[in-house]
């Protein structure tokens, strides 16, 4: 158990902006032999996220029962070799680093799960529009050895969703030790677009990590600036051999607190096509792109602009001082045909209706208690913080008042995606014009968004997705009524 003193320290230490010394951020790498280290650059090939097949084998999409697919997805302790010659114990779904379910709108998915971990587990489909019973309420935990089924209707727009633990006390460590999976939902609208598909549609699950000299993952709640290794699908700063053509790359940040600001090559241009809630209204040419914890950004990189033999580095402009900024390297190895295109129009945002309710959420750190609070309160599973009504559109204002400690926060809302209206009164940039489910709010900033409650009633969470803030209280509970 944490002492009160440790709690205060942990809370105070979570200021990403307040940090700056970077002391020791890369120190764990020093004194190691370069061979077989997680800190070697571009020494290992990118692991490709394993696409799971429905139970019963056979081809993907095989029908089971009344038109739904059944998967088995169970977390368990697994020893994996992230770099040759080393072993790391992780908590992984089906023993795989970030396995992926590919689902189609209109065809539900049932997931059967047994908790093979020694700690509780409560799986949440991040970005999913699902009944409360299947949403992974923090109290809805599977104890060790227990099992259940989750039902995901897949009645929502195509989007890159992901699965992670949401259990009341174990989620931070369960996510840190690797219990995440991808959930890529497509639909007929998206399938008709000429975007890169098949093996040119590549999900990348990014996170930071700290390893000890024996390649074991080390979790230190205070140590968010001391996780210098970046893993992409579990590969430490890998290289990825690509064809000289366009790729759709789906970026998901599964880190606890790490922010990325991606840059490609020498500030080369790439195309931003989607975010949390799926495709943007229109593609945006960018030279940098931020990705905060739990967010997704989808991009198209056209590698035909580079001669075969080129090596193009994706780097993080928000790396802490002393850290290697490199995230991964694309090696352009062969010419290739490319009939894919990025259309000028992608997907218009839906009309979320006229708002009739306004709410305000003040995100703040309390140095006295070491807790992170929403509207002055730490999470209490016995308390319902608000009762939105189904069919109602609301405007939420999220204010981050943590200027003193310089702590960024985010707001993630379960159940519904939302539309960002403005940041400090300024309309969102084109890259934020699509639907979102997680929005970052910098110290002193206010973000307003519009959200409509549809379909499902019951208890759902909203919280900061810097996971150690959430575990230190920055979460609330809404009970959506009919
Ligand atoms: Cu926060």
The tally of beta strands, per DSSP, is 31
Bound small molecules, by name, code or SMILES, are: copper (II) ion
Binned, the helix content reads: under 10%
Question: What general form does the structure show?
Answer: globular
What is the gyration radius calculated from CA atoms?
21 Å
Secondary-structure-based class equals mainly beta
Indicate the proportion of strand residues. 35-45%
User: How many angstroms separate the termini?
Assistant: 40 Å
The biggest sheet, with number of strands, parallel, antiparallel or mixed sense and barrel status, is: 7 strands, mixed
Mean pLDDT over all positions: 91
The helix tally amounts to 4
């Amino acid at each position: 158990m944490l002492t009160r003193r440790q709690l205060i320290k942990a809370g105070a230490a979570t200021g990403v902006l307040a940090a700056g010394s970077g002391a020791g951020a890369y120190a764990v790498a020093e004194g190691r032999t370069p061979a077989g280290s997680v800190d070697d650059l571009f020494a290992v090939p990118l692991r490709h996220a394993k696409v799971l097949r429905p139970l019963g084998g056979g081809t993907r999409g095989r029908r089971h029962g009344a038109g739904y697919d059944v998967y088995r997805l169970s977390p368990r302790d697994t020893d994996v070799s992230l770099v040759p010659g080393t072993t790391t114990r992780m908590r992984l779904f089906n023993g795989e680093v970030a396995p992926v379910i590919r689902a189609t709108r209109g065809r539900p998915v049932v997931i059967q799960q047994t908790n093979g971990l020694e700690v509780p587990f409560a799986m949440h489909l991040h970005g999913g529009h699902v009944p409360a019973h299947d949403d992974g309420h923090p109290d809805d935990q599977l104890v060790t050895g227990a099992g259940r089924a989750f039902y995901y209707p897949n009645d929502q727009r195509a989007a890159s969703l992901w699965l992670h633990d949401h259990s009341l006390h174990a989620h931070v460590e369960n996510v840190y030790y690797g219990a995440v999976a991808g959930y890529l939902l497509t639909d007929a609208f998206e399938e008709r677009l000429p975007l890169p598909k098949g093996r040119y549609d590549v999900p990348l699950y990014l996170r930071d990590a700290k390893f000890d000299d024996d390649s074991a993952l080390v979790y230190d709640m205070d140590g968010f600036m001391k996780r210098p290794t970046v893993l992409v699908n579990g590969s430490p700063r890998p290289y990825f051999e690509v064809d000289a053509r366009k790729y759709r790359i789906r970026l998901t940040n599964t880190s606890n607190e790490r922010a990325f600001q991606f840059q490609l090559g020498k500030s080369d241009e790439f195309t931003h096509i989607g975010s949390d809630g799926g495709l943007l209204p229109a593609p945006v040419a960018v030279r940098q792109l931020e990705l905060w914890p739990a967010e997704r950004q989808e991009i198209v990189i056209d590698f035909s602009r580079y001669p075969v033999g080129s090596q193009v580095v994706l780097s993080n402009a928000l790396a802490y001082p002393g850290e290697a900024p490199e995230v991964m390297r694309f090696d352009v190895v062969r010419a290739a045909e490319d009939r894919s295109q990025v259309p000028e129009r992608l997907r218009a945002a839906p009309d979320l209706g006229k708002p009739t309710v306004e709410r305000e959420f003040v995100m703040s750190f309390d140095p006295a208690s070491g807790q992170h609070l929403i509207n002055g309160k730490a999470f209490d599973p016995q308390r319902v913080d608000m009762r939105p009504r189904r069919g109602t559109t609301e405007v939420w204002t999220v204010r981050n008042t943590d200027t003193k400690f310089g702590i960024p926060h985010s707001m993630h809302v379960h159940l519904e995606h939302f539309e960002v209206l403005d940041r400090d009164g300024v309309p969102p940039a084109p890259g934020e014009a699509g639907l979102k489910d997680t929005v970052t709010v910098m110290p002193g900033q206010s973000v307003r968004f519009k959200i409509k409650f549809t379909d499902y009633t019951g208890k759902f969470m909203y919280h900061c997705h810097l996971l150690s803030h959430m575990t230190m209280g920055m979460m609330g509970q809404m009970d959506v009524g009919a």
